[in-house]
Design a protein that fits this description.
mainly alpha; Ammonium transporter fold; two-stranded antiparallel ribbon; 2 strands; 64% helix; 1% strand; Ammonium/urea_transptr
Length: 442
């Protein structure tokens, strides 16, 4: 029988996670330059279109069905087209299950969509849109589906144990954030740096967009984390509370670092700190106490505030800080679980709660495995695309702006704005023909 409560919660959670990708579009769009904002946002929206179809056709099957002899690395084809899931119900027991398997497929579809979209922020202002449209499905097929299978589909990470401890990744620290962050790093090496990187100001053009995007992501993340309980139960409640307090702590830590380093706090820092906290608590949301969640969030906010500046030191152009927030934040959340995981809320104890070193070790192995695979395969995919069709735009297109050159449109009516500005600063001409003085104009 269908458990209507669990089914309703999963349906709502799927919708919340879907909202995160438009939220990401606003977050990235606001952080980009005005001449390329539409291109940046379209990369996220294009991910919705491409990955949704691909997920139904083969993605869910490769992630969750039995892959036979290759099951440690990739799933099989039992669920191709999702036809075999129609009418199937997850067995209900002890308040869990009781939802149609199609709901699960739809919920996980949204995870695949946003993981692909996350990568785009690293290559803002310099990637061909057509090349991105080719990269997105190939990366999903060769990287996301296999890694998600490793973690959630009975692959090698899901079955890995060290000293009796299993890997903990409640909602996607490895499969989503470290995976996307490592891929973003690889793309920065293939595409190279933007013109003027390190010497010209490339500040966000619309901070209200950034704050709106961060708010939508924060709101949607409750579906991302609490929905991963797959039931309307105590685990979902814990994940919801932990998500909130970790994010709040991360914003405070990020702003404190800004205050100490620069003497001021910023709206961009608040928004970035929130995302860092959301990322870090994702793998740990159901395995730490609320106080542990605050510690995870504060640590991620402080460390990621420094990590985003590493691109200037090491000369890789991670345009919108995908590496510094998602990869670094995902590593923090996944590894720190080896210290602060609390068996009292479920699962294993970390070192600080009397557990053994095995949990820390197994978390590190999972993190390193995903990072290496994602980076290497992404680099190969991007390099092949670059050789075949070219991944990077020309210098002229980059200078003029991707919106006008690639999409024949603009987010803002620049000519009209220039005319309005000119009228605002030019004194009116009186009937006599002489320009009025500033005092007369006032």
């Amino acid at each position: 029988m269908i458990d209507t409560g669990n089914t309703a919660w999963l349906l709502i959670s799927a919708a919340l996670v879907m909202l995160m990708t438009p939220g990401l579009a606003f977050f990235y769009g606001g952080m980009s330059r005005a001449k390329s904002v539409l291109n940046m946002m379209l990369m996220s929206f294009a991910s919705i279109a491409i990955v949704s179809v691909l997920w139904v056709v083969v993605g869910h099957s490769l992630t969750y069905s039995d892959g036979g002899p290759l099951n440690a690395f990739i799933g099989g084809f039992d669920y191709v087209g999702l036809s075999n899931l129609i009418g199937e119900i997850e067995p209900a027991a002890d308040g869990e299950g009781g939802y149609p398997l199609l709901v699960d497929a739809g919920f996980q579809m949204m995870f695949a969509v946003i993981t692909v979209a996350l990568i785009s922020g690293a290559i803002a202002d310099r990637a061909k849109f057509g090349a991105w449209m080719l990269f997105a499905p190939v990366w999903a097929l060769l990287v996301y589906f296999p890694v998600a299978h490793w973690v959630w589909g009975d692959g090698w990470i899901g079955g890995l144990t060290i000293g009796g401890y299993e890997v903990i990744d409640f909602a996607g620290g490895t499969a989503v954030h470290i995976n996307a962050g490592a891929a973003a790093l690889a793309l920065t090496f293939v595409l190279g740096r933007r013109k003027g990187f390190g010497s010209e100001s490339m500040r966000p053009h619309n901070l209200p967009f950034v704050l709106l995007g961060a708010a939508l992501l924060w709101f949607g993340w409750f579906g991302f984390n609490a929905g991963s309980a797959y039931a309307a139960n105590e685990t979902a409640a814990l994940a919801l509370v932990n998500t909130q307090v970790a994010t709040a702590a991360a914003t405070g830590a990020w702003m404190l670092v800004e205050r100490l380093r620069y003497g001021k706090v910023s709206a961009l820092g608040f928004a970035s700190g929130a995302i860092a906290g959301l990322v870090a608590i994702t793998p740990a949301a159901a395995n730490v106490t609320p106080l542990g969640a605050i510690a995870v969030g504060a640590l991620s906010g402080a460390v990621c505030a420094y990590a985003i500046s590493w691109k200037f030191k090491f000369k890789y152009d991670d345009a919108l800080d995908v590496v510094g927030i998602h990869m670094v934040g995902g590593i923090i959340g996944s590894v720190v679980l080896g210290l602060v995981a609390a068996g009292v809320v479920g699962g294993s104890d970390g070192l600080l709660y009397g557990g053994g070193i095995g949990l820390l070790a197994v978390q590190v192995v999972a993190v390193v495995g995903v990072m290496i695979y994602s980076f290497v395969v992404t680099w190969v995919i991007a390099k092949v695309i670059d050789l075949v069709v070219g991944f990077r735009i020309t210098e002229e297109v980059e200078t003029n702006g991707l919106d006008h050159e690639l999409h024949a449109e603009s987010a803002y009516a620049f000519e009209e704005l220039d005319e309005i500005e000119a009228e605002a600063v030019s004194p009116p001409t009186p009937p006599g023909g002489e320009a009025a003085s500033p005092q007369v104009k006032a």
